[in-house]
Amino acid sequence: MKVSERMSKWGMRIYPPLFFQRIWVVTIHKGFRGVTVNINRSIFNRNYNNSIFGGTIFSAADPFYPLLFHQIFIHKGYNVIAWSKSSEIQFLKPGLTKLQFKIRISDEDIAEAEHVLNTGGKYVKAHPIDIYNIHGEVCVTVTNEVYLRNLNFTETSQ
C-alpha cells in the first residue's frame, strides 16, 4: 500500500508492538530515504539490570529497512513485497539511557536494488544499523538482511 511519509510515521508511532515498548519514530525522511528512531527507556522495557530489554532494541531495528525499501519501490510503480529475511544483533554496552538510530538509504542502494529486481526478481542484502546512547556511544549493532521480491518479474521480462 502506497502511503505518505507522514502517514507512515504516525502509523508506526501508534503501532502497538512499538508504542508499548516506547519505540518512537522521530521522522521518516522525504522519499522514504531514511528514518530516525528513538527507543525511550521506561518501566515497560527495562530488564533485570535496569537497562533497555534487548528484545525492545531488536524490535525497534527490525521493520525499518523493509518498510523504507517497500515504500520507495511502491512509489516508483513496482509491485513488491518486502521483509526482514534475517537479522543479527550484537550488544556492546547496556542501554541505560534513551537510544537512537538513523537509517539512510542512498541513491546507490536504490539503484542496486532496482537493478537486481529487474534482472533477477529478488533482492537480498544485509544492511547495518548502529544504535547510540545519549552520549554518542554505540551500544548495539544490528545487521538486517532485507528481502525484496518484484511480483511482476518473469524470466521473459528481462
TrEMBL record:
Instruction: Name residues in a coiled coil.
Output: none
* Superkingdom to which the source organism belongs: Bacteria
Alphabetical list of InterPro entries matching this protein: DUF4442, HotDog_dom_sf
Q: What is this protein called?
A: PaaI family thioesterase
E.C. code: 3.1.2.-
Q: Which organism is it from?
A: Mucilaginibacter ximonensis
- Output the SUPFAM superfamilies linked to this UniProt entry: Thioesterase/thiol ester dehydrase-isomerase
> Keywords on this record?
Hydrolase
The entry lists its GO molecular-function terms as: hydrolase activity
Question: Which Pfam family is one of those matched by this entry?
Answer: DUF4442
Top enzyme category: hydrolase
